[in-house]
Here is the input.
Amino acid sequence: MLSAAGSNDTSREQKGASLIITLVAATFFMENLDGTIIATALPQMAHSFGVHPADMSLGITVYLLTLAVFIPISGWAADRFGLRTVFGSAIAVFTAASVLCATTTTLPAFAAARVLQGIGGAMMVPVGRLAVLRATKKDDLMRAIAIITWPGLVAPVIGPPLGGFITTYSSWRWIFYLNVPLGIVGLLLTLRYIDNVREDTQRRFDLPGFALCGIACTTLLYAMELVGRTDADWPMIGALVAVGAVASVASYWHLRRAAQPVVDLSALKVKTFAVAMGGGSLFRIAISAAPFLLPLMFQVGFGMNAFESGLLTLAVFAGNLSMKLITTQVMRRFGFRPVLIVNGVLAALSLAAMSLLTPSTPKFAIAVVLFASGLSRSLQFTALNTLSFADVPKTQMSGASALSSTLFQMTMGVGVAVGAIALRFGEWLHGHDAHSIGPEDFSVAFLIVALVGLLGVANLFGLARDAGALVSEHRKEKA
Here is the structure.
């Protein structure tokens, strides 16, 4: 009888953990999708608001900036108010903001709604991951991280074609209305299955740290975006970089010395976490540039329409999903260090291979290159995200999750900026302007991005040969 009762309890725990993982993956997908899905809808949105299409970039920029700025306080909020309270509130805010985005009639109002949506998204990402980390056993961490990683891989790929389809056959406003049923279901499941765990209810809010981190993120990201524009204001860029550099140094100094910092840097003392944040960030920058460059290359360089280019990028999505089927087996067979190094090189080479594509390249060959890139980026993403938390103690999970999510969001924004800067360098190299971009400009851009990804591999050599073996079960597999 006791054995049966224990078995039932274990079964309920596993079912609850699986539901939490699925819920968090769904909210991650919703949050990541809204960062890219409006890209193909910008012309129609600009027509609705009566502005130039180029001005609509504000809707993407403010969303990414808000995520980067507010993610650091998510750990404090979860510790102070509880996982269920913060995660549920984040879903509610994100859903309500989606309705506001869909009903706005002016660009300033839309930007304000996107800021509110970014605040909700900023709380969903790290707090949701924290809920998964606390509900999952170490030996099941690989599977859990693999499941919640796919939204970050899939959303940027399917966002443009999905947004183009909705915009073409309906209205751009339905892009945001689709979040409503997902948000309602997510909120109900959160209230039912996530415990309101609190780590430190007396932890003070680090206002100086929050302000310094916010200034550093905002100024540096905006400066990089300005560099990628054809009408770059260099004095403004210089001033922003200077302010951002000072704020970055000051925030690092403050976070190292504050008793209760808004972002806990203590997890960086864990070797696997530090390496995953270092070399892993460079890899994410390189990979995040691809969803930005590919649609532009297909439409501007190759002459495809938006829907055609969006459909072609689905080959990356197919590669992502295919690799998910064997990721766990690969990690158990070879371990983290060999996989990250070898696959990191392959991922960089797949980006470099995109520089060889031309308007005359058969679409099947293009799809093969994109599929191979999807395979490598999926494996690298999952391995890095799992390794990040493989050796982090439970007591440091909250701070590590907030720091990881902040850097992840920053690298996504930086990746887009790096892609724009690399493309501009290609234009300058070939003597082109914004109105005469050629396929050869994109070739230069992809080579630069590939180099950034290759630099990220160098940092991975610092890993121990058995790094993360408890999670990957590599040693057990060898035995």
Q: What stands out?
A: The chain has a mean pLDDT of 80. The two ends are 36 Å apart (CA to CA). The longest helix spans residues 397-430.
